[in-house]
Amino acid sequence: MEQQLDFLVDKVVAELQKKLGEMGQTAPAGTQKTEVPATPQMEAAQKATSPTVREQLALPVEPERTAHVPNPKWQEGLNELLDSTPARIGVWRTGVRPLTKTMLQLRRDHAAAVDAVYGEVSQALLDEFSMFTVETQYDNTENYLKRPDMGRILNEEGVRLLQERCQKKPQVQIVVSDGLSASAVDANLRDVLPSLTDSLKSYGLSCGTPFFVKGGRVASMDHIGELLQPEVLVLLIGERPGLVTAHSMSAYMCYRPRKGMVESERTVISNIHRQGTSPIEAGAHIGTILSKMLEQKASGVKLVL
Amino acid sequence: MNTKTTVLGQTYQFRDLKEVFAKANEDKSGDQLAGIAAADSRERVAAKQVLADLTLADIRNNPMLPPEEDEVSRVIEAGINEKIYNEIKNWSVAELREYILSHNAGDSEIKRISRGLSSEMIAATAKLMSNLDLITAAAKIRNITHCNTAIGQQGVLAARVQPNHPSDNVQGIKAALYEGLSYGIGDAVIGINPVIDTADSVKDILTMTKDVMNKFDIPTQNCVLAHVSTQMRAIRQGAPADLIFQSLAGSEKGNNAFGIDVALLDEADELMRKEGTSYGPNFWYFETGQGSELSSEAHFGIDQLTMEARCYGLARKYNPFIVNTVVGFIGPEYLYDSRQVIRAGLEDHYMGKLHGLPMGCDVCYTNHMKVDQNDMDNLGILLSAAGVNFVIGVAMADDVMLNYQSTSFHDIAAFREVLGLRPAPAFEKWLEKMGIMENGKLTSNAGDPTIFM
What is the CATH number of domain B145-452? Predict the structure, then answer.
């Protein structure tokens, strides 16, 4: 179901990107994900025509790439090809193997992705936002990867901590989790959280006690929902890292989360990172969505945005 | 049916066939997640020991998912040749394994016996085979198919060129396609996974790839891997599709989760017979992968290897041009590390081949698996040695749309060079004509995508 949801989101954004492409702009690197409808940023992007506007909007910029084909039949054509795709083309070869720099680039990108999965969120960062930590039943990273079911339930100590330290029945509950990328939290939380808090304030909404879940899966929000009974809950969680970026975060939102929720009852903004949906924009947008959930008493496919 | 044995002084009594089958598997995280895996090595070997002595009739007479309850089981049952089955029904699984590996069984003999076997019997032999057994057995079987061109011949390693783009940008797809062709990749199929699953978008990509094929006279076939119903709409609107694609699961419920059933596949089959653009007679492209049934809670307590075999049982009804196990795509909760992925790749390839299918493999991984590019090098070489019909070619192995890593254009060129394998014959002639290949080796033009501009 998570995959299906991602897929739907991908489709929408792909259509946006297609429109961007038709306006003579190259597609950004990586699969862009956001939810329906587009963020104000995306809508603005559709209207944007000048490169300066794109820069101001912090839209994705392709890292500079050069082709290594020594004597191409058509040099300008080669640049044209490179501009049309983020795929690793024009890389040339030695015999039938890649050049050293191309090989090392791939290994660097993979290393970043692996580090994101096995890394830990910075304690200083969590302290900065006065977040305490609870753990799921995941036990260790290996088990976390093999047993998604155990990442959906808090352990006994976690349950006790929540009951002791969290405000019950808050209007909005904010939860942060490492998920599959600790570095996504490190890279984006400082931008997402303040803009989310500001946005909630501007809608006059009140927040419960935010905290961090170690070893969390998306559906951990159901268990937390049972324990704290918030009106709405947002879970900021690290996504499965790709080679284009290992720092991508998703925001899963839900009206009255509880056990047995299905994926279609959740609303998601994914691909939150500097080259995707900008974290500051995302924070503001999450606030808007949460306020609409409270207005309409619904989330997921039932929510009209 | 005896389900009791003693190993190293300990007696094991298994409940039923499902338990024997599950526990006889090599270690897989997916079977652990399902709660059906052997507790330890000793229990695993006990299950293998029990399985080895079961007869083929035991397996057929005790269906794990009865035909009355599942249409995939009905397809598998209906495909069994009773005459051949009756000749071998009293064989034990051990005897079947030894027959397949014996010098008495060549390509023709294995093809004949395959017609009397159910998918579960084939899965049973895989559970009793080492990795080298799986390679040795598969290497004897050549399943040659023909769409516009033929692949699967002895000494041929074909490849799908997979020029995906994160927003289906047709120019971007073309760029990666040119790169792939310039490395001699694309004889199995030019196949694109679309981001946008609409008939219009599918039609645009099919039309572009067909134009490139026509412009350069490329002997291959095209395909866009959207949902089968989307492709059917595109084809009805006149889109030039040589192949039609669909992912398969090993149970009716699993297929329903993919939004398909046998009736829909039959309808698509009929449509391709009437409106497909290719020569045929093979025009299907199927994809499978261990674990998909568990992920949609459609496995009925049956292990992921057996469910995978059942996908092949369904696939063989449609005489596909290519079948691809996307072995490392589904994630670490099904195949945790390189050891499990390599094992699964070899199992799937062998089981598909024994079903008579033109098996390929997407030798691949996601970033949260304990796998890296070196492991893909290993599995790629092992499968090439086992005679895999085709593998997947992605620019530098990095798929910028699906966000996972597969095998690269360079890798496939290396598999061919190291093992003395060649592209499909018609495609190699074309590569020579384009000046990309000479005497089975890439020329100095290879790797320059602008030769197609």
Answer: 3.20.20.70
